[in-house]
Design a protein that fits this description.
This protein has 144 residues and is an alpha+beta fold. It is 29% helix and 24% strand. Strand 1 (35-43) and strand 2 (48-52) form a beta hairpin. The longest helix has 20 residues, at 2-21.
């Protein structure tokens, strides 16, 4: 009996996890040339997002950014688009679109976000430059 309950719990847990990963946007696929406007209420990955055209997820439209860099990250897209009003122009068949926030295309904004993130990385010593060590430090350990 206990193994049955464990198997049931694992099955339901796995199904719930799979459902949790599905994007909540259930709107109809847009047609080429259509313009979609609304807040970005869900970011699927570094290239895909949901634009809400109402409070019901059946009116949220999934679009894939045509101009997103190949290595765009989920966090990068979250930082430039989530919660902001977007205007997306569908480019062709499927859900590919150019989306703008505050008049700026998201693709270039993602490139800027990745560049800024790379600039925050720890500085490594240049070739020929010695790494700071105890002998170059301004702090000295007192000896008694």
């Amino acid at each position: 009996m206990n193994s049955f309950l464990l198997a049931l719990a694992l099955t339901l847990g796995t199904a719930g996890a799979a459902m949790a990963q599905a994007p909540p946007c259930h709107g109809a696929a847009p047609v080429a040339g259509e313009e979609i406007r609304g807040p970005v209420l869900h970011v699927v990955d570094g290239r895909s997002l949901c634009v809400a055209q109402g409070t019901d997820p059946s009116r949220w439209t999934l679009v894939t950014l045509a101009d997103a860099p190949a290595a765009a990250s989920w966090g990068g897209l979250m930082s430039v688009a989530f919660g902001k009003d977007a205007t997306c122009t569908v480019q062709g068949a499927g859900r590919t679109a150019i989306c703008r926030v505050d008049g700026r295309a998201l693709g270039p904004m993602l490139r800027e976000a990745d560049t800024a993130k790379a600039g925050v990385a720890w500085r490594r010593p240049a070739d020929g430059e010695a790494a700071p060590g105890p002998e170059r430090s301004s702090m000295r350990v007192a000896s008694f």
